[in-house]
Automatic annotation (TrEMBL):
GO MF term list: glyoxylate reductase (NADPH) activity; hydroxypyruvate reductase [NAD(P)H] activity; NAD binding
Family matches, as CDD domains: HPPR (cd12156)
UniProt keyword NADP, yes or no: yes
UniProt lineage: Bacteria, Pseudomonadati, Pseudomonadota, Betaproteobacteria, Burkholderiales
Protein name: 2-hydroxyacid dehydrogenase
Signal sequence bounds: none
Length: 328
C-alpha cells in the first residue's frame, strides 16, 4: 500500500502564494495575456464586486486602471487601506490627485515607453491629413482615377508647426518633424532653452502656425485651452492635430470651425466623449478620425503593461514605485 506525505488539510505552495497576493481593485479591461499576468501576482476585484460586497473595501490595497478610465473619488474614499493607484497609460487626469496626495496614496503611470508610438501616429496622421490619403485611397478603389487626376494636396515641407505642450511626447514629435524641413515653435509654462522657439502666448503661437499640434496633459488646467479664439487665430489655412486628450479642445468650436472652413482641417485621435463621439464629425471631409490608438502597437502596449505591473510589484515588494507621479 502506498503512502502519501501530502495532507489535504495543509496548504500547498500555490495556496500560500495565492493567499499572499495583494488585493486590488481593477478598473477597466486588459487583454487576456496581460490579465493573466495581473492575476498571477494579484487578487483583483471589479467595481461591481466591490458594490455587491462592501466588506471588500477594507482588503483593497491597490488600484490597477487604464488612463482612459475614471477613478471615482468616492470609491477611493471608501478604501481605507489603499496605498497605490497604478495606471496603464501616461495620462492621470482621470485620477483624483488631490485626494491621493492628501491620503499619501502613490500614483504611477507609464511614461516614456509610449512616446515613440504616439509621435509616429501624430506624424502619420499629419501627413495623411495634408496629402488627403484616405480620400486618395478611396479614389483609386472606386475607379475614379480613370476619369480624372486626383486633386493636388498640401506639402509639409516649409510649414510652421506649433506644438502645444512640449513634454516627453511633444519633444518626440518635434524631433520626428525636423527632417521634414519645418519651422518649429512650442507653447508651455516655461522656456526650456531648446533649439525651438518658445512662445508663451498660445494665441500668438496659433496665429504664427500653419499646423498646431496638441500634446499637453489633460486636467482642469488645460481643459478647452484650444477654444474658438485659438482656432480663429490658426485661420483658414491652418490645421489642428490632437493626440493628447479630447478635453483640451473645445469640440463644439472645432466642429463649427471645420464646418465653416475657418480652419483647413483637423486630425483627431482623442475626443470629448469616447467612444460615443459627436456624429457631426462623420460628415466632414476635412477631418481625419482615429479611435484613440496613439499607443496601440503590440510592442508599446506590452511595454506599458510590464511597467504598470512592475510598479505594483516593486511597490509591494520594496515599498517604492518605479515611475511615481510627482504631485505639484
Amino acid at each position: 500500500m502506498g503512502w502519501s506525505t501530502a495532507s489535504p488539510n495543509l496548504p500547498t505552495r500555490s495556496d500560500r502564494r495565492a493567499a499572499m497576493r495583494p488585493e486590488l481593485l481593477q478598473i477597466g479591461a486588459f487583454p487576456p495575456q496581460v490579465q493573466a499576468e495581473i492575476d498571477a501576482d494579484f487578487h483583483c476585484h471589479s467595481l461591481d464586486a466591490l458594490a455587491n460586497a462592501p466588506a471588500l473595501a477594507d482588503a483593497i490595497v491597490g488600484i490597477i486602471t487604464r488612463s482612459n478610465q475614471r477613478v471615482p473619488a468616492e470609491v477611493v474614499e471608501r478604501l481605507p487601506g489603499l496605498r497605490i493607484i497604478s495606471t496603464f497609460g501616461v495620462g492621470y487626469d482621470q485620477i483624483p490627485l488631490e485626494l491621493a496626495a492628501r491620503r499619501g496614496i502613490v500614483v504611477t503611470n507609464t511614461p516614456d515607453v509610449l512616446n515613440a508610438a504616439v509621435a509616429e501616429l501624430c506624424v502619420g496622421m499629419l501627413l495623411s491629413l495634408l496629402r488627403d490619403l484616405p480620400r486618395a485611397d478611396r479614389f483609386v478603389r472606386e475607379g475614379l482615377w480613370r476619369q480624372a487626376p486626383f486633386p493636388l494636396a498640401v506639402s509639409l515641407a516649409g510649414k510652421r508647426v506649433g506644438i502645444v505642450g512640449l513634454g516627453r511626447i511633444g519633444k518626440e514629435i518635434a524631433r520626428r518633424l525636423e527632417p521634414f524641413g519645418v519651422t518649429l515653435a512650442y507653447h508651455g509654462r516655461t522656456d526650456q532653452r531648446l533649439a525651438w522657439r518658445h512662445e508663451p502666448d498660445l494665441l500668438a503661437l496659433a496665429a504664427d502656425s500653419d499646423i498646431l499640434i496638441v500634446s499637453a496633459p489633460g486636467g482642469n488646467g488645460t481643459a478647452r485651452m484650444i477654444d474658438a479664439r485659438v482656432l480663429a487665430a490658426l485661420g483658414p489655412q491652418g490645421y489642428l492635430v490632437n493626440v493628447a486628450r479630447g478635453s483640451l479642445v473645445d469640440e463644439a468650436a472645432l466642429i463649427e470651425a471645420l464646418q465653416g472652413k475657418t480652419i483647413a482641417g483637423a486630425a483627431l485621435d482623442v475626443y470629448d466623449n469616447e467612444p460615443a463621439i459627436d456624429e457631426r464629425l462623420f460628415a466632414l471631409e476635412n477631418v481625419l478620425l482615429t479611435p484613440h490608438i496613439g499607443s496601440a502597437t503590440h510592442e508599446t502596449r506590452h511595454a506599458m503593461a510590464q511597467l504598470t505591473l512592475d510598479n505594483l510589484r516593486t511597490f509591494f515588494r520594496e515599498g517604492r514605485a518605479l515611475t511615481p507621479v510627482v504631485f505639484e
